[in-house]
Amino acid sequence: MGAATFRFYAELNDFLPPGLRRREIPYRFHGSPAVKDAIEALGIPHVEVDLILVNGRSVGFDYRLQPGNRIAVYPVFESLDITPLVRLQDRPLRNPKFIADVHLGKLVRLLRLLGLDTAQFEGKEDSALVEAALNAKRIILTRDRDLLKRGAVTHGYWVRSTDPIEQAREVVRRFDLSSQARPFTRCLACNGPLIRAEKEEVFDRIPPKTARWQDEYFICRDCGKLYWRGTHYPRLRNTIRRILS
By the 8 A CB rule, do 36 and 46 touch? Predict the structure, then answer.
């Protein structure tokens, strides 16, 4: 039996039991397994890893463990170019689009509120979610670690928090999205883009009391839902500030 030592950095520690975080972890193995298999056996999805150093040298996921290896594992770098090293993930999606699993409905609405292209997957099969993400080049958002360990997954993020506001803040920080936020430009119901609508064109859909004081309206290009800045608007603005602060 061989033995190696792993050390995980930054947010990768979120996947580890408290007693193993931010410290060296002994790892015993038979034969010469791939370093990717060892990392996932320790609980870290491969899509969260961007750089592996073995005895100070950058290696790929297919590197075979050797007795005595000292392995440092780093998270995905969205805003730091590490091209001279062996970058393990595809280039960051600089115009990111997301697809969230069925359990993250509140997060989906908040990301749409920010103007971020976010689809909601309504099915139950993980394989179908992965296929949908690959076909549309979307980043998977999920609370299911095992989903992100699937070999076909290329871009994904394990959402740590259970609070929707903090979840949205996580995604914004993780993918460096503050400058890309365009609040009130997407439909909260279907994710379609909002376009300006002339009041006269939608007058028959406006509540009479609203029509007396509101002149600016927007309509979803995809589903036709009508929007205006009603009494809830200040509350939504405050939510946006909380997320982006």
Answer: yes
Pairwise CA distance, residues 171 & 111, whole Å: 9
Helix extents (H) in the chain: 35-41, 105-113, 126-136, 145-148, 164-174, 199-202, 208-213, 233-244
Would you state the structure tokens that stand for residue 90, as one six-digit string? 């595809």
Query: Which residue segment(s) compose the domain that 126 sits in?
Result: 98-180
Q: Measured between alpha carbons, how far is residue 72 from residues 17, 23, 105, 207 in Å?
A: 18, 11, 35, 61
Enumerate the β-bridge partners of residue 26. 5
pLDDT in tens, 30-64: 999 999 999 999 999 999 999 999 999 999 999 99
Query: Residue 68: which CATH number?
Result: 3.10.20.30
Q: How far apart are the first and last CA of the chain?
A: 50
The answer to whether 194 and 185 have CB atoms below 8 angstroms apart is yes
- Model pTM greater than 0.85? no
